[in-house]
Structures are given as C-alpha cells and as structure tokens.
Design brief:
The structure is a single chain. By secondary structure, the protein is mainly α. The protein folds into two domains: 136 residues, no CATH class; 33 residues. It has ten helices and two strands; from the N terminus they run H-E-E-H-H-H-H-H-H-H-H-H. It has a two-stranded antiparallel sheet with strand order 1-2. The protein is globular.
C-alpha cells in the first residue's frame, strides 16, 4: 500500500467519504446472473449496526496479531509472517471484510464472498481489511504522531505521553 494511498484513506475517513479501491475481478464464474460487478470496491462509512457486527470478530484476533495486521506507515512486516497471519485468521478476515463492504442490515451475499475468494490474493485481503478497519477508526491516522501534530493543539511529547498513557490504561 503506497503512502499516497494511505493518506487518501485517512482523508476519506476523516471526511466520511466512501473509500474506493480499484479491484480486478477476472473470474466472474461465481457471479449470479443479473448481478453486476464494478472494477471498484466501495467501502462506505460504517454504520453502528455494522460496527456491532464486526467488533466481536475483531476481538477474536489476538492483540499482537491484530497490531501486525494493521497497515502503519513505516512498519515493515516480513511477507512470510503476514501470509502466516492471514492464513491463521482467513475465514474470520473474510467475514470482517464482507460485512464491512456490505455495510447493511442484511447479511452480505454469499456469492460476493465466493467471488472475492476467487479473485483475491493475500495482499488484496490485507488491503481490503485495512480499508474496512480505517472506516471503524483502527487506522494509522489516530496513531500517527505526524498527522496528529497537524490537527492537534498538543505538542509531540504530549502526544507521545497521551498515547503511552492510553496504552497503560488498556493493559489493565
């Protein structure tokens, strides 16, 4: 994921704009007749209902694994480790992604899940997962001192102290 793409996701999250991710669907054999797929996956701002559906799924991911799955500028997780994490939580990640993309009262259509499986590689799932997580606030915007410094009246040392304080409270 490029830095420019991350900044665009951050801006879209803040402004409540839909996140639009270009996506190629070369294998459309699982698409039911009458259904049309665009070459873009759109993730709208998540509703509270969607958050309540995704939250228990996210909580099933171990804290260290979840932090490793988050795209953070400057963090470089080895490809092998990332693939292992993706494999460990594969169905769970698909559930989170499909619910986040669908973002409606009803369950996501089963055919879309199958089409996504047929047309995704692990990197696609990683990008889609992070895009959904951006929509629920688990994004580098909130953890990025550089970005926060631009919008916060706090200085960098105060931001670092606030982050460490928050982490110490959540550990208890």
């Amino acid at each position: 994921m490029s830095v420019q793409f991350l900044f665009q996701l951050e801006a879209d999250t803040i402004t409540e704009k839909p996140v639009r991710i270009p996506f190629d669907f070369p294998d459309k054999s699982s698409v039911p007749e009458g259904q049309v797929l665009d070459d873009i996956i759109t993730i709208n701002p998540l509703t509270t209902r969607t958050w309540f559906a995704i939250k228990p799924l996210i909580l099933r991911i171990e804290k260290e694994d979840f932090e490793a799955l988050l795209e953070v500028d400057g963090k470089d997780i080895p490809e092998y480790d990332l693939i292992q994490l993706m494999a460990k939580y594969d169905e769970l990640l698909f559930d989170i992604i499909c619910i986040g993309i669908h973002n409606k009262k009803t369950d996501p259509p089963a055919w879309f899940r199958e089409v996504l499986k047929d047309n995704s590689i692990w990197k696609d799932i990683y990008i889609l997962l992070n895009a959904v997580l951006y929509r629920v606030g688990y994004n580098p915007f909130y953890n990025s001192i550089t970005t926060l410094r631009n919008v916060s009246p706090l200085t960098e040392p105060e931001l670092i102290a606030a982050q460490k304080n928050l982490e110490s409270w959540t550990i208890l």
